[in-house]
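Box 3.1 — From sequence to structure: Enoyl-CoA hydratase/isomerase family protein
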Amino acid sequence: MVGRLVLVNELDSTRFETLRVRTDGVRATVTLDNPPTNLFDPQMIDDVSRLLGILRADPETRVVVFDSADPDFFIGHADLNLFLAPRTEVPPRPHVLNGLQALFEDLRTLPQATIGVLEGRAVGGGAEFLSSLDMVFAARGRAVLSQFEAAVGVIPGATGSQRLPRMLGRQRALEVILGCDEFDADTAAAYGLVNRALPAEELRGFVDRLAARIASFPAKTIAINKAAVDAATPPYFDGLLEETHALDQTLVDGEAQRRMKALLALGAQDREFELTRFSTALEELDR
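Predicted structure (token representation):
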């Protein structure tokens, strides 16, 4: 894939392989573009990490809107191949966040207001990406959210086990995590997975107006308000360390790797499979 020019303030020479970024000076729109399913693979992970470094040092941008070039996929999920290496023992409880946790904490704590435009599927790591944003708005009849990790023998280990209880409460969080079901826009809004469900034809206009309104406020005020709101709940750090320790425990007996390989063999990470068979295939992995 040919790298695309990124227009974030004076860093016009920065190139990303899986992102397209445009800005008017105070608002940036980041379009995820990693065909065929916007898989959250090492290249996209690297691109997002570099982008967040640029934004954190950017004193001008006040709002960042994340959307997708593909109307069917926001982010498919993390690349399953990242988790297939055999594990022989559980490592000691960690003292630092794992790579995806650190990335999504960097996203959550950006000084800018961040808004997600969800028109397609956000599964696994894609849903965890969205839960790290400040606001998410979803298209009725199109948006789908799901945490599928329990079906393949692991946990939502990129902040999901910690974000969801705070967002939804314990019972709904466990329904989402253990049920591995797909949630449409209206149910996601009722549960608290997204801010609002809107008609697909109204979604972009609503987000554009909201982003423009927030971008008219002082950058310092936006950052301070985010910090003040975050201070209302306990820090995530200890819970995230426990999340990684729990994830490590799920990967030592080989069952998770077996289930992930079985899902890949059925067609996971293929576009048509992800759109039409992914959820029902999760029930076939115990055979």
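Summary of the box: The chain is about 45% helix and 15% strand.
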